[in-house]
């Protein structure tokens, strides 16, 4: 039996938490042979609800669930964790400006970044799900100077999975047959899902679809506004699909993506014209617990425009909270 791995989940009493924790405890994220100890962080007023979730986790009698810690203190939540899923964030409330939202989350993610810096395992893998995910991840990274910046990532996997399923529907081919999809930029409607390099059974997806108008006017808006469409239909934001994407992201990062391209928001190395340090969605391949950016892809004029647009939004978000860092 392997030694248990400590996994922190913030916002654990929320709706993504409810779709996430049971799957982590059943081994879907880190493997069916990997025991886990769950560190559950939520606000003081959510502790009773969190107790209820823990009772249900107990009642599943998961063989891999080696323990649970519930707390409202990030310093306790992140102690010795090797994986941290930062899901809890301040949602936008009525009348709240985008700037106020960034500010409120800035306060949360500076504190959590510092707590990770002070208490987490030195090789902790951090995934930020809470919106605005890329900027929150950037704030946490900047607040953790003793940790390797490359261990901070933002979730673009939901956009990636949404794009896969739209392409599968359009081509009539199975989702699993699609290779080499990329999603660039911010987790927001400005993200740029890019199937120019994608293949199905060795055939070019771009050639198969052969419809630039569909790409621009149907595919990109559908993927970009999918979160809003779910809220419209369900009355609640995506939770099960978001939790699933978080599981996919960490699973592949830790256990490898088997040569497949997957999308992660990672600090830019300056390639693709994205300034160094910007937390930007790019295609990666994961192996041996590391992600590696797919390099050398050609960026055409349409793609450049889309990639710069989503970059501009990220730069704007960053400018709004830059004062937190002097
Ligand atoms: N990156 C992505 O692809 C996606 C991101 N999201 C985002 O994920 C976040 C969570 O979504 P839901 O679970 O549906 O929201 P929710 O409102 O159901 O749950 C959020 C939980 O976080 C807790 N929380 C708030 N501030 C906290 C803090 N400082 N520390 C610890 N816990 C805190 C709340 O008490 C609540 O229990 C939202 O920001 C949402 O916009 C949602 C879907 C996709
Ligand atoms: O829009 C939201 O709040 C949830 C979200 O990020 C998504 O579904 O992509």
Automatic annotation (TrEMBL):
The active site is at residue 187. Residues 5-152 form the Lactate/malate dehydrogenase N-terminal domain. Keywords: NAD, Oxidoreductase, Tricarboxylic acid cycle. It catalyses: (S)-malate + NAD(+) = oxaloacetate + NADH + H(+). Substrate binds at residues 92, 98, 131, 162. One of its GO terms (molecular function) is L-malate dehydrogenase (NAD+) activity. Residues 157-319 form the Lactate/malate dehydrogenase C-terminal domain. Pfam families: Ldh_1_C, Ldh_1_N. One of its GO terms (biological process) is tricarboxylic acid cycle. NAD(+) binds at residues 11-17, 42, 105, 112, 129-131. It comes from the Bacteria. CDD domains: MDH_chloroplast-like. Its EC number is 1.1.1.37. Catalyzes the reversible oxidation of malate to oxaloacetate. PANTHER family: MALATE DEHYDROGENASE. Belongs to the LDH/MDH superfamily. MDH type 2 family. This is Malate dehydrogenase. It comes from Chromobacterium alticapitis.
